[in-house]
Amino acid sequence: MQFSENDLTEIQGWLRQAGEIALRSQPTLHMTFKADHSPVTDAEFRIESLIVEKILEKFPSHQMLTEETGLVQQSSDDLWVLDPVDGTKSFLRGLPSWGISLGLLHRAAPVAGFFYIPVLQEMFWGSEEGVFMNGKPLSPIVEYEESLTFLAVSANMHLRYQIEYPRIQAFGSTAVHLSFLARGIAAGVLTRRIHLWDIAGFLPIFDRLGIRYRYLSGAPVDISALLGGQKTPEPILAAPPERWEDLQKRIHPRK
Q: Are 95 and 171 in the same domain?
Protein backbone atom coordinates (compact mmCIF):
# COMPACT_ATOMS: atom_id res chain seq x y z
CA MET A 1 0.00 0.00 0.00
CA GLN A 2 1.31 3.42 -0.96
CA PHE A 3 0.94 6.47 1.29
CA SER A 4 1.19 10.02 0.06
CA GLU A 5 2.96 12.65 2.12
CA ASN A 6 -0.47 14.09 2.91
CA ASP A 7 -1.68 10.69 4.15
CA LEU A 8 1.28 10.35 6.51
CA THR A 9 0.80 13.88 7.81
CA GLU A 10 -2.91 13.28 8.33
CA ILE A 11 -2.32 10.09 10.32
CA GLN A 12 0.21 11.84 12.53
CA GLY A 13 -2.43 14.52 13.09
CA TRP A 14 -4.84 11.88 14.40
CA LEU A 15 -2.27 10.79 16.97
CA ARG A 16 -1.68 14.38 18.03
CA GLN A 17 -5.44 14.83 18.48
CA ALA A 18 -5.45 11.67 20.57
CA GLY A 19 -2.59 13.04 22.65
CA GLU A 20 -4.56 16.21 23.34
CA ILE A 21 -7.50 14.12 24.53
CA ALA A 22 -5.21 12.21 26.86
CA LEU A 23 -3.55 15.29 28.32
CA ARG A 24 -6.83 17.14 28.85
CA SER A 25 -8.28 14.06 30.56
CA GLN A 26 -5.49 13.48 33.06
CA PRO A 27 -6.86 15.68 35.89
CA THR A 28 -10.21 13.83 35.93
CA LEU A 29 -9.34 10.31 34.79
CA HIS A 30 -11.75 7.51 35.62
CA MET A 31 -10.03 4.13 35.98
CA THR A 32 -11.44 0.61 35.95
CA PHE A 33 -9.81 -2.81 35.84
CA LYS A 34 -10.04 -5.26 32.96
CA ALA A 35 -10.48 -9.02 33.29
CA ASP A 36 -6.69 -9.48 33.49
CA HIS A 37 -6.58 -6.94 36.36
CA SER A 38 -4.73 -4.35 34.27
CA PRO A 39 -6.02 -0.76 34.54
CA VAL A 40 -7.81 1.10 31.78
CA THR A 41 -9.03 4.70 31.70
CA ASP A 42 -11.97 6.45 30.10
CA ALA A 43 -9.49 8.47 28.03
CA GLU A 44 -8.30 5.32 26.29
CA PHE A 45 -11.82 4.51 25.11
CA ARG A 46 -12.21 8.05 23.75
CA ILE A 47 -8.89 7.84 21.94
CA GLU A 48 -9.78 4.45 20.52
CA SER A 49 -13.13 5.75 19.24
CA LEU A 50 -11.40 8.72 17.56
CA ILE A 51 -8.75 6.67 15.78
CA VAL A 52 -11.14 3.89 14.73
CA GLU A 53 -13.53 6.47 13.27
CA LYS A 54 -10.73 8.24 11.38
CA ILE A 55 -9.27 5.05 9.93
CA LEU A 56 -12.56 3.49 8.85
CA GLU A 57 -13.60 6.78 7.27
CA LYS A 58 -10.39 6.99 5.23
CA PHE A 59 -9.83 3.25 4.70
CA PRO A 60 -13.33 1.71 4.88
CA SER A 61 -12.27 -1.73 3.66
CA HIS A 62 -9.55 -2.14 6.30
CA GLN A 63 -9.76 -4.11 9.54
CA MET A 64 -8.61 -2.95 12.96
CA LEU A 65 -7.25 -4.63 16.07
CA THR A 66 -7.38 -2.49 19.21
CA GLU A 67 -6.36 -3.19 22.77
CA GLU A 68 -9.71 -2.30 24.31
CA THR A 69 -12.17 -3.60 21.67
CA GLY A 70 -10.33 -6.34 19.81
CA LEU A 71 -11.05 -6.87 16.12
CA VAL A 72 -13.16 -4.21 14.40
CA GLN A 73 -14.65 -4.48 10.90
CA GLN A 74 -14.68 -7.40 8.47
CA SER A 75 -11.69 -9.51 7.54
CA SER A 76 -9.17 -7.74 5.32
CA ASP A 77 -5.59 -8.14 4.12
CA ASP A 78 -4.94 -4.72 5.66
CA LEU A 79 -4.97 -4.56 9.45
CA TRP A 80 -4.42 -1.48 11.60
CA VAL A 81 -3.26 -2.23 15.15
CA LEU A 82 -3.88 0.38 17.86
CA ASP A 83 -2.83 0.82 21.46
CA PRO A 84 -4.63 3.99 22.61
CA VAL A 85 -2.27 4.43 25.57
CA ASP A 86 0.82 2.26 25.90
CA GLY A 87 1.98 2.78 29.47
CA THR A 88 -1.36 3.20 31.27
CA LYS A 89 0.19 3.09 34.74
CA SER A 90 2.65 5.86 33.83
CA PHE A 91 -0.25 7.82 32.33
CA LEU A 92 -2.25 7.45 35.55
CA ARG A 93 0.69 8.57 37.68
CA GLY A 94 1.36 11.70 35.62
CA LEU A 95 4.69 10.44 34.29
CA PRO A 96 5.78 11.30 30.73
CA SER A 97 6.62 7.74 29.61
CA TRP A 98 3.47 6.73 27.71
CA GLY A 99 2.16 7.20 24.22
CA ILE A 100 -0.20 6.27 21.40
CA SER A 101 0.88 3.45 19.09
CA LEU A 102 -0.53 2.65 15.64
CA GLY A 103 0.72 0.23 13.00
CA LEU A 104 -0.49 -1.05 9.64
CA LEU A 105 0.11 -4.60 8.43
CA HIS A 106 -0.63 -6.07 5.01
CA ARG A 107 -1.00 -9.85 5.15
CA ALA A 108 0.91 -9.77 8.46
CA ALA A 109 3.81 -7.80 6.94
CA PRO A 110 4.60 -4.38 8.51
CA VAL A 111 3.78 -1.48 6.20
CA ALA A 112 3.75 1.68 8.32
CA GLY A 113 4.03 2.51 12.00
CA PHE A 114 3.52 5.52 14.25
CA PHE A 115 4.19 6.29 17.91
CA TYR A 116 3.52 9.60 19.66
CA ILE A 117 4.61 10.64 23.16
CA PRO A 118 2.30 13.59 23.97
CA VAL A 119 4.10 14.99 27.03
CA LEU A 120 7.39 15.23 25.11
CA GLN A 121 5.75 15.95 21.74
CA GLU A 122 7.86 13.24 20.12
CA MET A 123 6.46 11.65 16.96
CA PHE A 124 8.06 8.53 15.51
CA TRP A 125 6.96 7.07 12.21
CA GLY A 126 8.25 4.74 9.54
CA SER A 127 7.26 3.37 6.16
CA GLU A 128 8.99 2.54 2.90
CA GLU A 129 9.68 6.30 2.71
CA GLY A 130 12.07 6.01 5.67
CA VAL A 131 12.03 6.36 9.45
CA PHE A 132 11.68 9.65 11.26
CA MET A 133 11.42 11.35 14.63
CA ASN A 134 9.72 14.75 14.52
CA GLY A 135 10.33 14.91 10.79
CA LYS A 136 14.08 14.23 10.99
CA PRO A 137 15.45 10.94 9.64
CA LEU A 138 16.56 8.40 12.20
CA SER A 139 20.04 7.11 11.45
CA PRO A 140 21.23 3.53 11.81
CA ILE A 141 21.91 2.57 15.41
CA VAL A 142 25.13 3.95 16.85
CA GLU A 143 27.32 1.58 18.87
CA TYR A 144 27.63 3.11 22.33
CA GLU A 145 30.04 2.25 25.07
CA GLU A 146 28.41 -0.25 27.44
CA SER A 147 28.85 2.17 30.33
CA LEU A 148 26.66 4.74 28.56
CA THR A 149 23.69 2.60 27.55
CA PHE A 150 21.12 0.30 29.16
CA LEU A 151 18.81 -2.63 28.54
CA ALA A 152 15.16 -1.53 28.76
CA VAL A 153 12.95 -4.05 30.58
CA SER A 154 9.52 -4.28 32.19
CA ALA A 155 9.37 -3.23 35.84
CA ASN A 156 9.13 -6.74 37.30
CA MET A 157 11.63 -8.42 35.00
CA HIS A 158 14.12 -8.84 37.87
CA LEU A 159 11.70 -11.32 39.47
CA ARG A 160 11.81 -13.62 36.43
CA TYR A 161 15.30 -13.18 35.02
CA GLN A 162 18.85 -12.66 36.19
CA ILE A 163 20.31 -10.10 33.81
CA GLU A 164 24.07 -9.64 33.54
CA TYR A 165 24.02 -6.25 31.87
CA PRO A 166 25.53 -3.31 33.76
CA ARG A 167 22.40 -1.16 33.59
CA ILE A 168 18.77 -2.13 33.25
CA GLN A 169 15.99 0.45 33.30
CA ALA A 170 12.19 0.35 33.23
CA PHE A 171 10.02 3.24 32.07
CA GLY A 172 6.58 1.62 32.19
CA SER A 173 5.86 1.41 28.45
CA THR A 174 7.01 -1.16 25.90
CA ALA A 175 6.63 1.32 23.06
CA VAL A 176 8.64 4.00 24.90
CA HIS A 177 11.39 1.41 25.40
CA LEU A 178 11.28 0.65 21.67
CA SER A 179 11.56 4.36 20.89
CA PHE A 180 14.76 4.51 22.94
CA LEU A 181 16.14 1.60 20.94
CA ALA A 182 15.20 3.27 17.64
CA ARG A 183 17.10 6.37 18.74
CA GLY A 184 20.17 4.41 19.84
CA ILE A 185 19.73 5.32 23.50
CA ALA A 186 19.02 1.75 24.65
CA ALA A 187 21.28 -1.20 23.85
CA GLY A 188 18.20 -3.40 23.55
CA VAL A 189 14.69 -4.06 24.80
CA LEU A 190 13.47 -7.15 26.65
CA THR A 191 9.68 -7.25 26.75
CA ARG A 192 7.36 -9.33 28.86
CA ARG A 193 4.83 -11.52 27.02
CA ILE A 194 3.06 -8.86 25.00
CA HIS A 195 0.36 -8.32 22.36
CA LEU A 196 0.73 -7.15 18.79
CA TRP A 197 -0.53 -3.66 19.68
CA ASP A 198 2.46 -3.19 21.99
CA ILE A 199 4.94 -3.41 19.09
CA ALA A 200 3.03 -2.82 15.83
CA GLY A 201 3.97 0.85 15.66
CA PHE A 202 7.68 0.03 15.64
CA LEU A 203 7.81 -3.05 13.40
CA PRO A 204 8.25 -1.04 10.16
CA ILE A 205 10.75 1.25 11.89
CA PHE A 206 12.85 -1.68 13.06
CA ASP A 207 12.70 -3.34 9.64
CA ARG A 208 14.07 -0.17 8.06
CA LEU A 209 16.75 0.31 10.72
CA GLY A 210 17.79 -3.33 10.63
CA ILE A 211 16.96 -3.98 14.27
CA ARG A 212 16.47 -7.66 15.09
CA TYR A 213 13.41 -8.67 17.09
CA ARG A 214 13.10 -12.32 18.03
CA TYR A 215 11.75 -14.34 20.92
CA LEU A 216 14.22 -14.67 23.76
CA SER A 217 14.73 -18.33 22.84
CA GLY A 218 15.94 -17.20 19.43
CA ALA A 219 12.81 -18.27 17.57
CA PRO A 220 11.43 -15.81 14.99
CA VAL A 221 8.36 -13.76 15.89
CA ASP A 222 5.42 -15.08 13.85
CA ILE A 223 3.28 -11.98 13.39
CA SER A 224 0.48 -13.97 11.74
CA ALA A 225 -0.03 -15.88 15.01
CA LEU A 226 -0.76 -12.61 16.85
CA LEU A 227 -3.34 -11.09 14.50
CA GLY A 228 -6.31 -12.06 16.68
CA GLY A 229 -4.96 -10.34 19.80
CA GLN A 230 -3.11 -13.32 21.30
CA LYS A 231 -0.18 -12.81 23.65
CA THR A 232 3.27 -13.75 22.49
CA PRO A 233 4.32 -17.19 23.77
CA GLU A 234 7.46 -15.72 25.33
CA PRO A 235 9.24 -12.39 25.77
CA ILE A 236 10.77 -10.60 22.79
CA LEU A 237 14.35 -9.35 22.71
CA ALA A 238 14.99 -6.48 20.28
CA ALA A 239 18.47 -5.15 19.52
CA PRO A 240 20.81 -4.37 16.63
CA PRO A 241 21.89 -7.70 15.07
CA GLU A 242 25.53 -7.34 16.11
CA ARG A 243 24.44 -6.96 19.75
CA TRP A 244 21.50 -9.39 19.89
CA GLU A 245 23.28 -12.66 20.70
CA ASP A 246 25.49 -11.05 23.33
CA LEU A 247 22.43 -9.68 25.13
CA GLN A 248 20.63 -13.01 24.86
CA LYS A 249 23.55 -14.75 26.61
CA ARG A 250 23.32 -12.29 29.51
CA ILE A 251 19.65 -13.05 30.31
CA HIS A 252 18.96 -16.14 32.46
CA PRO A 253 15.58 -17.36 33.75
CA ARG A 254 15.39 -17.48 37.54
CA LYS A 255 14.80 -20.93 39.00
A: no
Kindly report the CATH number assigned to the domain that includes residue 89: 3.30.540.10
What is the dihedral angle through the alpha carbons of 174, 191, 132, 142, rounded to the nearest 10 degrees? 130
Same structural domain for residues 132 and 171? no
pLDDT digits (tens, 9 = 90+) for 151-164: 999 999 999 999 99
Residue 194's contacts (CB-CB under 8 Å, 6 or more residues apart) are 174, 231, 232, 235, 236
Q: At what angle do helices 5-25 and 42-58 cross, to 10 degrees?
A: 160
Tell me the per-residue pLDDT of 86-102, one tens digit each, with 9 for 90 and over: 999 999 999 999 999 99
**Model confidence, pTM:** 0.95
Phi–psi pair at 30, nearest 5 degrees: -110, 125
Task: Say which CATH number the domain at 204 has.
Answer: 3.40.190.80
State the SS3 of 159-174.
HCEEECCCCEECCCCH
Task: Give the domain extent around 108.
Answer: 5-137
